[in-house]
Amino acid sequence: MTDLQRLATRLGLIFAASASLVACGSLNGASTRIASIVTPYKIDIVQGNFVSQEQAAAVTPGMSRVQVRDILGTPLLTSVFHADRWDYVFTFKRQGVAPQERKVTVFFKDDALERIEADALPTEAEFVASLDSGRQAGKVPVLEMPPESLTAAPAPIKAVEPKPLPPLPASYPPLEPVAR
Question: What 3-state class would DSSP assign to 92?
Fold first, then answer.
């Protein structure tokens, strides 16, 4: 092999290595762009007890533990060391939205409600509206039938009345044979 061929081979290898490095850099940029478009699905995570403004307003001092549990539900946290304290903790995490976290603490004295401490609580309507914040609202179909269609529609089929049941027997046979 001549010196000229060796030089050409070396230059060819250097050119191929440089081209592959440049290709790797552009491939990395393309893969980063594709990865930013395609994201994995993450499920919504709901933990704890949701307590609304309406529920917190319904709880008044002097109520028993049973009454408070009927309104707010079973507390998420009860402590052996704090028997007169119930904690209601709620977290809601979903993709692309800041997590919602709320805490309500109920204090008892002699099995009667003493006070309630809570974060800012939403109303039930506000909470339901926050659940649908990321969804696209489609066109709502009209659920009424126009008068022209009502006249053209066939009459509804009347339900067949069931036959009356036979009368019950006056006495039933014994379950076990009578011993003689």
Answer: strand
Nearest by Cα to 46 from 131, 106, 133: 131
Helices (H), the chain: 3-37, 53-58, 65-72, 124-131, 147-152
- Mean pLDDT along residues 1-6: 82
Q: Is 106 exposed, middle or buried (0-12, 13-18, 19+ CB in 10 A)?
A: buried
Looking at per-residue pLDDT, the higher value among 123 and 24 belongs to: 123
Give buried/exposed letters for 62-77 (b at 16+ CB in 10 A, else e): ebeeeebeeebeebee
pLDDT per residue as tens digits for the range 40-83: 777 888 888 889 999 999 999 999 999 999 999 988 877 788 88
